[in-house]
Design goal:
Blueprint lengths: L4 E8 L6 E9 L20 E3 L12 E4 L2 E5 L5 E6 L6 E12 L4 E6 L4 E7 L2 E7 L9 E7 L9 E14 L4 E5 L1 E4 L4 E3 L3 E5 L5 E11 L6 E5 L7 E5 L4 E9 H9 L1 E5 L9 E5 L4 E3 L4 E7 L5 H9 L2 E2 L2 E5 L5 H8 L6 E6 L6 E4 L8 E4 L5 E2 L19 E4 L10 E4 L12 E6 L11 E8 L3 E4 L4 E4 L3
Parallel strand pairs: 14-34, 27-33
Antiparallel strand pairs: 1-34, 2-12, 3-6, 4-5, 5-12, 6-11, 7-10, 7-12, 8-9, 8-11, 13-16, 15-21, 17-20, 17-22, 18-21, 19-20, 23-24, 24-33, 25-26, 26-33, 27-28, 27-31, 28-29, 29-30, 31-32, 35-36
């Protein structure tokens, strides 16, 4: 009996980090109270007055709740403050309305910056305020305070403030993805990439796109992914260079689940061989099963290596720390190189000692993988282009994925920090996520299996048979 060959399909939903879980903390002053909570979340404390002669009574004093608004009158030294917990918030925006009904006095709006209250706006006349809080103003003990921004208030000079609203956003929570499948693939046929798939997400029910990529073993011109059936809110686009099928929404997760189940793999080869691995992702980064890491090409024409390193370090993905990619195997190099969308920097240089090429980013930082120039010694893994690294003109110390037009597809060359011209110009950089100490554990990957057999497909008018050779 002929030995079966196995195609392992890794089904992974990968979500580009975006904001979700929008909530509000608000006081519309609809009742005469300093404890109103009119948003989806509550303030940490009630409004608290301070200053000579002020009380905790919201119906009396220079500051009070009056006519469904917060009223200020004759308040030279008086203040009112309220605190809120923004410790797990990513972004926060403050909005409010104000109206000066008499006089020429003004109110300062102040926020607590971790050390003291500082003025963010001065309210005069009538209008609305919108302000995005900075990082120092977003904490477990954030606070807002209203205080006079002028002196000499008369008994009738009055300012009203209303609809104090903090609109806040939390980081998106990753989903839990579970898939199953164990099928046989016969040449000349097609099979679904998964037999079952479910997505459980604590804070989202929909997304904009799903990307299904053949992440290992892809044969351009032979392998194909196709969306079958009718999916009114989803369209599909096949990219033969990257071996990637885009399922474009927006649509609900339930609709994308159906589309994934309707996505089929086929090969035009008479006798396909080898292993194919697939990543199914939400967001443009891709999952490589052999490393358990995620990869993203960032287009930024003309960027230098040092700027690319900083930019990569500033990127995160569901809490996974980003860094310029470190390619430690041929499979990883092929995945990040031959199927990348452009020519990009990777995380290696020989700046410290000429000819000692080291990974200087990510978990492999400090690891030397090559010694010497052209024809040097490979210490771990390297994938230099023919005639590289040549340190041309005495100043090429940074590693870069080679343009397809000038050598081995996906291979590396050495360039100056700013890159070169023409085919040697930098088009961006490749970011890797995963493996950094402190990274969270993500359960966003499911695995199914397809076995390639020497079977033949025989079809009559009623049924299709898979016939296996003895």
């Amino acid at each position: 009996m002929r030995t079966l060959q196995t195609i392992s399909i890794v089904v992974s939903f990968f979500f580009f980090c975006h904001l979700s879980g929008q909530e509000t903390i608000a006081d519309n002053f609809q009742t005469v109270s300093y404890s109103n909570n009119d948003g989806s979340l509550n303030f940490l404390t009630n409004w608290a007055e301070s200053g000579s002669g002020e009380t905790t009574d919201p119906s009396a004093g220079r500051i009070r709740v009056n006519s469904n608004e917060l009223r200020f009158r004759n308040m030279d030294s008086a203040t009112i403050t309220r605190t809120l917990d923004l410790s797990t918030v990513v972004t926060a925006t403050l909005t409010l309305d104000y109206n000066r009904t008499s006089g020429n006095e003004s109110i300062a709006v102040q926020l607590f910056d971790g050390t003291s209250y500082s003025t963010i706006a001065t309210l005069s006349g009538t209008g609305s305020l919108s302000y995005d809080l900075n990082a120092n103003q977003i904490s477990a003990n954030s606070g807002i305070r209203f205080i006079s921004a002028s002196g000499g208030w008369g008994n009738s000079e009055t300012v009203f403030i209303d609809d104090v609203l903090f609109t806040i956003a939390y980081p998106d929570e990753p989903p839990l993805v579970v898939g199953s499948g164990d099928q046989v693939y016969c040449p000349g046929s097609s099979v679904p990439v998964a037999q079952s798939i479910t997505i459980t997400d604590p804070d989202d029910t929909s997304t904009t796109a799903v990307y299904i990529q053949i992440s290992a073993g892809y044969v351009n011109g032979e392998d194909l992914l196709t969306l079958t059936g009718s999916h009114p809110n989803i369209t599909s686009t096949w990219d033969a260079v990257q071996g990637e099928l885009t399922l474009q929404g927006p649509a609900t997760y339930a609709e994308f689940e159906l589309a994934v189940l309707a996505t089929e793999y086929s090969s035009s080869a008479a006798a396909p061989t080898g292993t194919r691995q697939f990543s199914i992702t939400v967001g443009e980064a891709n999952f490589l099963p052999s490393t358990g890491h995620y990869y993203e090409f960032v287009s930024d024409p003309g960027i230098s290596w040092t700027d690319a390193q900083i930019a990569a370090d500033n990127r995160t993905y569901f809490g996974l720390q980003g860094y310029l990619v470190t390619l430690t195997s041929q499979e990883e190099a092929d995945f990040s190189g031959s199927q990348a969308q452009g020519v990009g920097w990777i995380g290696a240089n020989d700046v410290a000692v000429e000819g000692e090429w080291r990974w200087v980013t990510g978990p492999e930082a400090g690891t030397q993988f090559w010694n010497g120039g052209i024809g040097g010694t490979e210490l771990t893994f390297a994938f230099w282009n023919t005639g590289e690294p040549n340190n041309c003109c005495g100043g090429e110390d940074y590693a870069h994925i080679t343009d397809n037009s000038v050598g081995i597809i996906g291979s590396w060359n050495d360039l100056p920090n700013g890159g070169g011209g023409g085919a040697y110009a930098s088009q961006g950089y490749v970011v890797e996520y995963g493996g950094t100490t402190g990274d969270p554990t993500l359960n966003i990957t499911a695995t199914t299996t397809i076995s390639i057999s020497g079977c033949r497909m025989i079809t009559n008018r009623r049924i299709t048979y898979r016939v296996h050779p003895n």
